[in-house]
Structures are given as C-alpha cells and as structure tokens.
Amino acid sequence: MTNSLPTNIFRACALSLALIAVPAAAGASDKTGHSHEHAHAHGDENKDVHAGYFEDDQVAARDLSDWEGDWQSVYPYLRDGTLDPVFAHKAEHGDKSAEGYKAYYEAGYKTGVDGIEIDGGKVTFHRPEGSVSGRYESDGYEILTYKKGNRGVRFIFKKVEGDESAPSYIQFSDHKIAPEKADHYHLYWGDDRAEVLSELTNWPTYYPASLNGKEIVEEMLAH
C-alpha cells in the first residue's frame, strides 16, 4: 500500500501495543528541566525517556524548529537491502528473526512520501507524483500510554494555510519529550487529530537528507 495525502493516515510508532489511554496535554507548560527527584543519572534518565518512561512534568512544548531541515524516508533503504544489517543485529537480541524484523519494519516504514522539508512554519511533502506544502502552527502535544506501561509523546501541528491536499494535522514522535533538535523522527498525519493519534502500525521514519545509506545504518545501530 502506498500512502497518499491526505486520505491515508500515518500510524503511530509502537510495536504491536494497544493504546489504552491518551491523557490530554495540549496546554503544555514551558518546563524543560528534568525531575529533581529522579533517581537516575542524566545518561540513565535519557535512556528511560527514549524507552518511554518519564514523568508528566518532564514533558514540555516544542517548536517546529526542532525538526527544521531536509529529511529523507528510510523506506527505500529497507527495500534495497541497505538496512539488512540493522535487522540482523535486532535478531541477535530480540524475539524475531532478521526476516521477521524486516517484515515488521516494512509495514512500519512504508510510505509514498520520499522527502520532507521543514523551513520555519512551512512543511513540504515530496512524492514521486509531485509535492504539496502547508504552513503549520503548534496544536500542543498528547501523551500516549501503551499496554505494557511505557509512554510516548506526540507533538502536534495544525495546518493554517497551504495546499488543500496537504494534511490538516502532522504529529511528530522522536523519542524526545522536551525542546531538543531531532536527529530522526516518525511522522504521522491526516485530517482528523484524534484518528491520527489512535493509529499504531505505520510510522514513516525520516533521517537527514545529507546522510547516505551506510551512515543511516550506523546511526540505527548506535541506538
């Protein structure tokens, strides 16, 4: 299935977890610091956050500038075999074969949007059949709680002008929960804010356009 805009909705990054709660957090505070009562060191705290374990007061609103730049989909690298070493590495530590992981990420990464450019408030979606763009403003964030107990944050932006076929809402997830430049991200979009939040099986993923396939593999293996 090839995604198109805006009728197909990109789904959330989650292995096979059922969403059980979506506490509202659109009126996010401007706090950016970590909880002072957190028992872990800073490095351990970052690992906890990346894994989805954090306190509500650690979450803070973010600007679209955190994702500014020129980004490429990793889906073509999955299709041509470039990412096979990543799946082999996952198989050494996980519960699937390398082929099983590749099939899982095939569904997750699948997209018809090859590239995304973010410049100020303007977001441009590049597809083989042409590009569409819109200007977006923050619409807060939502904290998602998953079945196994970990959580994620979606930073949401609403289209205020632009091409009719550009999605009404875009939602970023990059395993960060407060203002910080993204090194990659999962992007989900559609015309219904709540519906996009509820999707969990397709999560097109973007890395800087300046990286080649080998460098993306190195980045993935480092995490």
Primary descriptors:
223 residues, alpha+beta, eight-stranded antiparallel β-barrel, 6 helices, 24% helix, 28% strand, globular
Q: Which percent bin holds the helix content?
A: 10-25%
The chain-level mean pLDDT equals 84
Shape estimate: globular
Strand order of the largest sheet: 2-3-4-5-6-7-8-9
Query: With helices defined by DSSP (H or I, 4 residues minimum), what is the helix count?
Result: 6
Query: How large a portion of the residues is in β-strands, by DSSP E?
Result: 25-35%
Structural class: alpha+beta
In a nutshell, what does this entry contain?
With 223 residues, this protein is α+β, with helices and mostly antiparallel strands. The chain has six helices and nine strands.
Explain what the structure shows.
24% of the residues lie in helices and 28% in strands. The chain has 223 residues and is α+β, with helices and mostly antiparallel strands. The longest helix has 12 residues, at 98-109.
Which helices and strands occur, and which strands form pairs?
Layout: E1 19-21, H1 42-51, E2 69-73, H2 75-79, H3 84-93, H4 98-109, E3 115-119, E4 122-127, E5 130-146, E6 151-162, E7 169-173, E8 185-190, H5 193-198, E9 205-208, H6 213-222
Antiparallel strand pairs: 1-5, 2-3, 2-9, 3-4, 4-5, 5-6, 6-7, 7-8, 8-9
